[in-house]
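--- STAGE predict ---
source: upstream dedup step, 1 unique chain passed
mode: sequence only
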Amino acid sequence: MLFKKVLVPYDESDHAKSALHVAFGMVGNDPDAEVHVVTAVSVGALPDPLFASGSPDDPFSVTSQIDYDNLLGALLQRTRDDMGGVIEGARDGAACKVITNAIVSASAVEGIADYVTNNDIDLVVMGRRGLGRLSGMIGSVSFGVLRSVDVPVMTVK
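--- STAGE serialize ---
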């Protein structure tokens, strides 16, 4: 098998679900292969505690760094839990190892690129939206990843 470690960036879209099916189809029968399913949560997903309104009506209001870290940790855990059912549905009996993760990064592109480097990923299989022009044809995140990593990137619609 040419690819032993495949990354599927997951954002809950139908295109990402299609990418899961493709990745499992490519390496699923190899018990030594790994499919990494990763969601990149932007640092800006929650307001910074320094700029929080402090209003009790604001559901994202945090008053300390500890509250912020706890809220972000809960968000990451919920994301990991939500991925579990989708992954099992796409697995189709695949024998490969599945690794799920939710990571925090400045941007989705940066988080995916760092994950590729830090985990010796051989291939990225990701969904694309196709919204227009060159970067829109494959999606802005797909385009950014393609330009940021030194491994093949397969886009799936």
